[in-house]
TrEMBL record:
Function: Transfers the gamma-phosphate of ATP to the 4'-position of a tetraacyldisaccharide 1-phosphate intermediate (termed DS-1-P) to form tetraacyldisaccharide 1,4'-bis-phosphate (lipid IVA).
Catalytic activity: a lipid A disaccharide + ATP = a lipid IVA + ADP + H(+)
Name of the protein this chain belongs to: Tetraacyldisaccharide 4'-kinase
Superkingdom field: Bacteria
EC number: 2.7.1.130
Protein species of origin: Sideroxydans lithotrophicus (strain ES-1)
Similarity comment: family membership: Belongs to the LpxK family.
Record keywords, A-Z: ATP-binding, Kinase, Lipid A biosynthesis, Lipid biosynthesis, Lipid metabolism, Membrane, Nucleotide-binding, Transferase, Transmembrane, Transmembrane helix
Record pathway: Glycolipid biosynthesis; lipid IV(A) biosynthesis; lipid IV(A) from (3R)-3-hydroxytetradecanoyl-[acyl-carrier-protein] and UDP-N-acetyl-alpha-D-glucosamine: step 6/6
Record field: transmembrane: 12-30
InterPro entries in alphabetical order: LpxK, P-loop_NTPase
Amino acid sequence: MERLQHHWYRITPLHLLLFPLSLFFGALVFSRRLLYRSGILASVRLPAPVVIVGNISVGGTGKTPLTLWLAQQLIENGWHPGIVSRGYTKNGKRRKTAREVSIDDAADEVGDEPLLMAQRALCPVWIGRDRPAAASALLQAHPECDIILSDDGLQHYRLQRDAEIVVVDGARRFGNGLLLPAGPLREPVSRMRHADAIVINGGDAQKHEFAMTLNGSLFYNLLNPGTILPAGDFAGKNLHAIAGIGHPKRFFSHLEHLGLVVQQHAFPDHHRYAADDIALEDAEAILMTEKDAVKCSRFATERCWVLRVDAQVSPALTQLILKKVTP
């Protein structure tokens, strides 16, 4: 799939072969959604409201930061959220059995994003390929939880939902607008008409959309998290930056915005880091995202620094979701 990605943001001769496959994929997507909407395929209603945070495109759009932001907003409004996500095993397959994620888990056992969310320690985080089963297990283990947030769950139609939030990368948007494998879309753009909210990460939001920014200017040392430095303390140093996220350029641009000049090292999304990836002998500091950090902690050195970012979204989104989930 990674070899196809450079074809997703343009039209190339390869699309003569890919476009018919996209038409077939689109037919499958439409049929599957229709079967769930008609009740032919069964879906599960949980005893707690469910909010879906997802996207219609492949790759990172900012779902995880938004999920954490929403969890914090719900807590401040008296709710007790729990988060469910897919999770992965070492071989990259989705985890079949549901389990809770702890801060001591390894990223290659549970997945980088679930581990990142668990380390924020806002609420319980459970993973499993079967979202309804994972959510049910979470509610049974944590009866205080009264609302479920499903990270990257837009296409998991077996789990009935009370609200849907679609996150869009404001820079890349929808690429060439085609469905997989000819383009980056899991579902057609028209699918967003059925969502309750559309959040634009790092771009201009149109009417009825919500703008989201990722803010952060402090770095903590990966070996000694209590050691925190502002961006200005890295100015003038020989800096390297690594990013194994959906859109590495976003991270590098953020560093540039902070006034830092870095040598860039982009890796595929969900890249499984090895010690050699950060064996950058001339680096005085190696800067990374939190998502990278959870996979580098086992072989990190004192030169590794992590930028914490937090989503900023209009409070109007909080009010919209509260209205959707309040009886």
